[in-house]
Amino acid sequence: MASEVFDIAVIGAGPAGAFAAFQAAGRGFTVALVDRAVFPRDKTCGDGIGPAAVKALQGAGLSGVFDGYAPVDTVTVFGRNGARSDSPIPDIGGQPASGFIIPRAAWS
User: Fold this and answer.
1) How many CB atoms are closer than 10 A to CB 87?
2) What is the CA radius of gyration of the chain?
3) 3-state DSSP call for residue 14?
4) CA-wise closest residue to 48 among 106, 104, 108, 100
């Protein structure tokens, strides 16, 4: 087995870990991205990309990941006995904000 030396190890290759590894590699570090799961994999709760993550991806020049997906600007929460609450996604820094729903399998 060959051994390698990395500057940084990121444990967890979900959206946050993958983005952290991408940013570190973009700054010239050698990065090991480690996850216990085999990819691609589906994880419904990981499909939501919130407004702050959207801004971070856009700032990193990765706006293309949203191509073909409609922005989400309202969040709906369902409760017991049919209770429902619809809320707009709040602005970030005075700018309108939205999120996206992108299946994890689409990121592979």
Assistant:
1) 9
2) 17
3) coil
4) 100
Q: How many Cβ atoms from other residues are within 10 Å of residue 24's Cβ?
A: 17
| pTM value surpassing 0.70 | no
pLDDT in tens, 33-71: 999 988 777 776 678 888 888 888 899 898 998 999 999
Q: Which of 102, 30, 18, 104 is nearest to 66 (CA)?
A: 102
Alpha-carbon gap, residue 30 to 67, rounded angstroms? 29
Q: What tokens does 22 get?
A: 């991408």
Is the four-CA dihedral 81, 43, 19, 9 of positive or negative sign?
positive
CA dist 24 and 10 (Å) reads 10
